[in-house]
Amino acid sequence: MANGGAIQLEALGKRFLGPSGEVSALDDVSLDIAEGEIFGVIGRSGAGKSTLLRAINLLERPDRGRVIVGGTDLTALSAEALRHERRGIGMIFQHFNLLARRSVFDNVALPLELAGLPKSEIRARVTPLLELVGLADKAGQVPAKLSGGQKQRVGIARALAAEPKILLSDEATSALDPQTTRSILTLLKDINQRLGLTIVLITHEMSVVREICDRVAVMEQGRIVELGSTFDVLTRPAHPLAREIARGLEPELKLDQLFGERFSTLPVTQSMPGGSTILRITFTGPNAEAPVIADLVRRFNVDLNILSGTIDYIQGRPYGVMKVEVTGAVEAVLAYLKSLELGVEVLGHVRSALRTAL
Ligand SMILES: Nc1ncnc2c1ncn2[C@@H]1O[C@H](COP(=O)(O)OP(=O)(O)OP(=O)(O)O)[C@@H](O)[C@H]1O
């Protein structure tokens, strides 16, 4: 089927009756996911991420709207036809969902057994999958003997057994330590590139999104509140929640602890002469790698104290964030930074130590 891994969600709605009344888990959600894309859905607990993911294979049937996968409207299919289409959509889970008594090989073979494939064909499919996920030497082990990362590799191999076009990942790395998370994400990226698989993953960790997603949707109360390339959402978030999540990746700088009661987020006024201003500068665009700090000091003769700085690569593009304390011609500094198309935000102001002492 051409375009088998493309997903179109059209005006999905889903309500649940919870203990405190009706909850709108999906509120008019429309979304196109391209074949071969790694798409992330992020948001707080209860935002509707799982409901959205599970709507893609109709494990959760929406009350309203259409789910079109590879050009086929799943919501219009008979139970039998839906079962068939679902084979094209694999799924992996936070808690792996492996069968404890079955060996690694037999766990991966299970969907093929259920589909009635002959033993020889099952072997011919499972063996290369175990190699793909790096578990060829564990085929005879039971899951209890494996680490969390290895269990998730079994889950991935099992999800791939039916040769799906789409892989849904439901918090697949949430139970893993950061290093194992990284290795699983690397594996998913590898699978995406080698097999051209579309991957839709939900997570509450922006670090996961940053690592592998091409695009990301941010959800809140059943709605998509921000949608864009991972780079754009991380570096230029528009919605307050997206901003908060993106900022969560930056090292925390407690300005009120650093400067005590001299720090204020209120705009600078005449009552605070001689103070300094704290700026957050983001380095993207054509001047992302220009020596801006030295330039500022030279041009405007300001005092500039670097409080924190990070440089990151998102989807292979450099992105830096620096927090600085500027004493002197702040207005001119702000105008200059903006003219360079750098992001700049005033985080607050610090009264001069001298005035406090008086
Ligand atoms: N089967 C259900 N019955 C009743 N309410 C449900 C059911 N499934 C989900 N909900 C509610 O729908 C809303 C969205 O839930 P959902 O699990 O999709 O959110 P989520 O973003 O995946 O959250 P989490 O990260 O905690 O898994 C929540 O308010 C949840 O309590």
Q: What characterizes the major β-sheet?
A: 6 strands, mixed
Strand order of the largest sheet: 6-7-8-3-9-10
Tell me the Rg in angstroms. Answer: 25 Å
Please give the oligomerization state of what you see. Answer: single chain
**Distance between the ends:** 77 Å
Number of DSSP E strands: 15
Helix content: 25-40%
Structural class: alpha/beta
Function: Part of the ABC transporter FtsEX involved in cellular division. Important for assembly or stability of the septal ring.
Pfam families: ABC_tran (PF00005), NIL (PF09383)
GO molecular function: ATP binding; ATP hydrolysis activity
Protein name: Cell division ATP-binding protein FtsE
Brief rundown of the structure:
The protein has helices spanning about 50-55, 80-85, 105-115, 120-130, 150-160, 180-195, 205-210, 230-235, 240-245, 255-260, 290-300, 330-340, 355, and strands at about 5-20, 20-35, 40-45, 65-70, 70-75, 90-95, 165-170, 200-205, 215-220, 225-230, 265, 275-285, 305-315, 315-325, 345-350. The protein is α/β, with parallel strands linked by helices and about 350 residues long. The model has no long low-confidence stretch (mean pLDDT about 90).
